[in-house]
Design a protein that fits this description.
By secondary structure, the protein is α+β, with helices and mostly antiparallel strands. It has four helices and four strands. The chain has a four-stranded mixed β-sheet with strand order 1-2-3-4.
Length: about 180
């Protein structure tokens, strides 16, 4: 887990954090650890902000005290499939990826479902996803590794943000870089 805060230079206070969420196999939305996402985010930003922005602060700066918050990192989210440990069955995921049915895959994305249900990242934005899942690339190839159930495609690395001060932060590009081999 890591966090950072940037002292205001343009009259805006910016905080960022990166912490893996939903550790484990992404078994489903019924995971109790999904309920601590907001607290984990708040703790990371508070710890970093108190020591970076104002070392002599008597009160820790909380996440909601920043004008712009950026969360960048691995959510470890998977494609939810009720009652199936490991998420969506691999065969169905492969079919949807090959047919580029991104919307159907995103409808089962755990992070999207948690945000929709108010379990994580309230008031945060994410640029719309129009690209195929970025997890898990097969080493040495330009393709997803879909050889086993533990490699079901998903969008794990994400960028979310919240702005309370105008002008609000905006994304200009959100994509996966193909060709990394």
């Amino acid at each position: 887990e890591q966090g950072a805060a940037f002292p205001p230079r343009t009259g805006a206070d910016i905080g960022s954090t990166a912490a893996p969420l939903l550790e484990g196999n992404g078994a489903g939305l019924d995971m109790p650890r999904s309920n601590n996402t907001s607290e984990k985010l708040k703790r990371n930003l508070s710890r970093a902000s108190a020591s970076t922005v104002n070392p002599s602060a008597k009160k820790e700066i909380e996440v909601q005290d920043h004008d712009h918050i950026f969360w960048i990192g691995d959510t470890n989210s998977r494609l939810h499939w009720p009652g199936k440990l490991g998420g969506m069955p691999l065969g169905r995921a492969i079919q949807k990826v090959e047919e580029r049915r991104i919307g159907e895959l995103l409808a089962l994305d755990q992070l999207n479902m948690m945000r929709r249900d108010g379990l994580a990242f309230d008031d945060f934005r994410e640029q719309p996803i129009f690209f195929l899942p970025s997890y898990k690339w097969r080493p040495g190839y330009d393709e997803l590794d879909m050889r086993s159930q533990k490699h079901v495609p998903a969008w794990c690395d994400r960028v979310l943000w919240r702005s309370t001060k105008r002008p609000a932060a905006e994304a200009s590009l959100y994509n996966v870089h193909l060709g990394l081999k």
